[in-house]
Amino acid sequence: MALAESISIESRFQDLHPALSAQAAVVEANRCLNCFDAPCMTACPTHIDVPGFIKKIARDNLRGSALRILDANVLGLSCSRVCPVDVLCEGSCVMHGRGERPIAIGLLQRHAMQQFYASGAQVPWKPAVERTQRVACIGAGPASLACAAALRREGFAVTIFEKRSVAGGLNSHGVAEYKLQVSDSLREVEFIRSLGAVIQTGKSVGDDISLQQLEQEFDAIFLGIGLGESHALNLSGENVPRIIDAMRYIEAYKMRAPLPTGARVVVIGGGNTAIDAACAAKLLGAEEVTIAYRRGEEEMPAFAFEIQHAREQGVGFLFQAAPVALQSGAVEFQRMRLTDPDASGRRQSEPAPGTEFTVPCDAVIPAIGQSKLTGLLQQVANIKLNHGAVVIDSSSGRTSNPKYFAGGDCVSGGREVVDAVADGKRAAQGIVEALGG
Amino acid sequence: MASARLKELWRRSVADLSVKFAGGISSPNPFWLASGPPTNCGEQIMRAFDAGWGGAIWKTIGEPILNVSSRYSAVDWNGQRIMGLNNIELISDRPIATNLREISEVKKRYPRHAVIASLMVESRREAWHAITRQAEDAGADGLELNFGCPHGMSERGMGSAVGQVPDYACMVTEWVKEVARTPVIVKLTPNITDIRMAARAAKRGGADAVSAINTINSITGIDLDTLVPRPNVDGLSSHGGYCGPAVKPIALHMVQQIAADPESQLPISGIGGVAGWREAAEFILLGCGTVQVCTAAMHQGFRIVEDMADGLSNWMDQKGFRTIEDFRGASVPRVRDWKDLNLNYKIVAAIDPAKCIGCELCYVACWDGAHQCIHVERDGVPAHPPPALVEAAAQARITQSPVSKPDQAAVPYGRTPLARIPQVDEAECVGCNLCSLVCPVDGCIRMKRVDQGVPAETWVQRSSKVLPV
Description:
The structure holds two protein chains of two kinds. Chain A has helices at 9-12, 22-31, 39-43, 50-58, 62-72, 76-82, 105-118, 142-153, 170-173, 182-194, 211-217, 246-254, 272-283, 304-312, 374-377, 409-412, 417-434; strands at residues 134-138, 157-162, 198-201, 220-223, 227-230, 242-243, 264-268, 288-293, 316-319, 321-327, 330-341, 347-351, 357-360, 363-366, 370-372, 385-386, 389-390, 404-406. Chain A is an alpha/beta fold. In chain A, helix 6 runs antiparallel to helix 7 (105-118). The N and C termini of chain A lie far apart (57 Å). In chain A, strand 11 (330-341) and strand 12 form a beta hairpin. Chain A is built from 17 helices and 18 strands. Chain B is of the alpha/beta class. Chain B is globular, with a radius of gyration of 27 Å. The model of chain B is unreliable at 399-412 (pLDDT under 50).
């Protein structure tokens, strides 16, 4: 089914949560108890001074509030939108103990950051000295942006190389539009540019510029390259439904060129990306969207609130079912049995032969994880990888090649945006120390 | 409707809220509207009586004045509106004849309610005689002399300009009493060093009662864009009169001072921050026969009186008080000079770990604002690190949020980690109350008595042992 041209992406992907009005923000900010050594601050991977920025909202110091957030997390706007706050800051809020809903930390942070960007996002920091040393960041995702911002504050010359034409990494290409709009991601990119970081888009390291050249021109290199291609389904058949990789599907609609799916869509996978893809398919006009996962709901890696959100969007779930073949206009599934919990407490799935059944569909969207991006990494001398992930010293972000530092999904295998920001920050400190900061 | 509901409540209740004030003013309950914007005209006052108010002090009658706009400004606090209200409005801007005619009408329709005429005229005996006669002829049940208005009128030698000079207040009171046939209430200004001097002057002048307090001189705030204080009158502001919830403690203090002063013994109509039955009970416990309300009615409307009557009745039923007189003044002797307090009374804080939510506000309050006797360290429990260490630790590792389902993690919400539950060093605790005041959880920090094993002893008693007088 073709996307109705008359309905824009913006109107289809409206904010999941409405922003707070200025007055509601003050009321909510006043609910905050201003805990001493607040648990929310500890729970945040970037250790934002949560009570500090909230009390500044309460006292009508919105600029101070935003700067307090940016001090700890330069991607404060996108994190306020995409952070799983239920399991981080808001999950640790002491209000739970009083039988009340936690302080709406995410919404308050969004309020402060939106005001900051709405009022011109003036550069609040000037490095004390401009240094001559140069640092290259490969990839313009959250890890690199955070690393670059921290290095700019220390006065280093920073250049970010991004192979795509649009910077921002998954914030621009991979986050569901109803959580974070591309335009907001790009405001943050521009903010980091305004700090003095040079961002070269459409420049693929390894193709357009060689690693050797980077090594010659830069004193340190940060790898924030994220993950590689999505895992393929490896199923065969003829006259099969369209197969669209989940990451490509999300990227396409975010770049305002949505891929057609037809009316019936099956998403394969149990993670948050599967949820994002399924909800997007629904919002883009698919009539019947089903998420198929080989284990049960309990075992789904997606957050519970994401699963709930998908249900509210009208997405159906098919549990304990794994695709085994593609047929004409359908996927053939096999029922899966769940084993008893293993040592890690998780139940594995195993096929139940003779239980095959088909689900008719026009498109299959696999969302079964991304592979590691090893091509570029193999060109780096002496760099140690563990199952494709870059191995780093956790206190400095330094790799086994002393010139290289790394962070974000290429190290972790895929975590939250806020983790990538934390990685980038720490690596920047490692670089500062290594370069004699 | 409202009035029918109120009557129903009063029937249901054992408590009798009716009062007789200053020897001659009867009222179905002690809740009166204070002289001010809510009592500007007869139509308002009749609606107020329908809503359940027992009496009203007419907005001060005198030679009509001109007002400015704007007139009010407020102090908001923590996102709540009108912790305090400030006004620069003057007395009635309506002709004296209009006010008097409406007084007559109201009294005809509401004979059982109290209608008091607030008066302010220039300081001439004839002028006060004339207005006194006119108000009483119109049917007012009593008179309130406005010696308190702190703005505008005082610049013309009226209002607080009278109230701030005890002899002057005494003299004007005498003039009124020369002709008055109804009870005369003198309204006192708080803008004076010792309100007892003004109360004594009123008594010397023959007043039948006092009402206190009038508004407190104030500047509520400044517009930080224009740098003009509020309220803004064409780029300028003026000192106003402050009232509302914020002034209640000041009003209670002054009322108690009058109630406890042997030379000021007069019936008191309490004013200042009354917004509900609890404040009304407090003023009555400190000796007031009636209470007057203005700001709360301006904020929420006349309907607030329903719960004032209902709440006070329920409380009286629970405490076994049948009439207002049963508890009026009961707390006056409970306020004493500091030197009369028991030095051997000792309480210490006790934190209930089952209720503690781990905010540690008591901890930081005790360390920074009190006596450093609340601790978070516990034997055998690893302490949670202070902010500096959290920051340092964060810099020493790459932090990653968990990927499994931490929203359904093992530690349930509402179970405070032991390391975040502070403990009190009872030996060091001075029993100041601060931790229990900052604690956001009801009943979590309790102040418990510690038996000192010694008899009560005041500072007077102790110092007399050392230095016999």
